[in-house]
Design brief:
Layout (H helix, E strand, L loop, with lengths): L14 E8 L2 E8 L36 H12 L8 E7 L4 E7 H14 L10 H4 L8 H21 L9 H22 L5 H19 L1 H7 L1 H4 L4
Antiparallel strand pairs: 1-2, 1-3, 3-4
Helix pairs in contact: 1-2, 2-6, 5-6
Length: about 240
């Protein structure tokens, strides 16, 4: 039996590396797919403080952590791309333990892909619901692919709920509720990010990322119906 090496790209399992070739420099991000700890000894700007425009759905308090977990992740992006244009063409390579992806795209598209992974693993107690997909991260997903991965991951979780004697949510009720919460989080976090003086590329990537969540939240049933034939192998 042929056995493939676990670390095909020399990457550790549980780490995804994003490499941006931007003009005359290379920018690299190593993102652990396991959620980060909330506590950090590092100092961040005021806009990243938890109490600064804190999301209405956030269950955290300053006793839990000093800074918003997502904001601390976004701070790194702001520092990396302070003055870059969102439409600047870049080469983005994404390396995981078993495979490598490459895309020639606008900078905002590359940041948007990275942002989803960063937010899901930031330690945010609201976004941790999406953490399972981080371990199976696929960059540059279309809306349809995102829908498929999200619903598929959620239904797999319900299977295990059933095995453990719980009541599975086959109707996707909680998933719909979650995306309604995420829609509010998106709106609130957008206000926070505006106070960060972020550059054009990061700002537009945030808009793109949040727009996808709004689309899924507003019409989950409708989108599933549109893709029913595709998902059930019916023509």
């Amino acid at each position: 039996m042929l056995e493939l090496p676990l670390y095909c790209n020399g990457m550790n399992d549980g780490v995804v590396r994003y490499i941006f070739q931007v003009k005359d420099r290379e920018v690299v991000f190593d993102v652990e797919t396991e959620p980060h700890d909330l506590e950090s000894s590092e100092a961040f700007p005021d806009w990243a403080r938890l109490e600064h425009r804190q999301c209405a759905c956030c269950p955290l308090s300053t006793a839990d952590c000093k800074y918003c977990p997502v904001a601390t992740r976004m701070h790194g992006l702001l520092d990396a791309f302070p003055n870059d244009a969102s439409t600047e063409r870049v080469q983005v390579t994404v390396e995981a333990a078993a495979r490598k992806y490459s895309n020639d795209c606008d900078l905002q598209v590359g940041i948007n892909s990275l942002m989803g992974l960063m937010m899901a693993t930031s330690g945010c107690p609201v976004l941790k619901e999406l953490g399972a997909m981080a371990s199976f991260h696929i960059p540059f997903c279309s809306t349809r692919e995102t829908l498929h991965r999200t619903v598929g991951s959620y239904l797999t979780k319900q299977y295990f709920v059933q095995l453990e004697g719980g009541e599975p949510d086959w109707e996707l009720t909680h998933l719909k509720e979650l995306y309604e919460v995420l829609e509010g989080l998106n709106q609130d976090f957008s206000k926070r990010i505006k106070d960060s003086s972020c550059g054009d590329a990061v700002s537009n990537a945030v808009i793109m990322f949040f727009a996808t969540s709004v689309v899924v939240a507003s019409s989950l049933d409708q989108q599933l119906q549109q893709h029913q034939a595709f998902l059930t192998n019916r023509k």
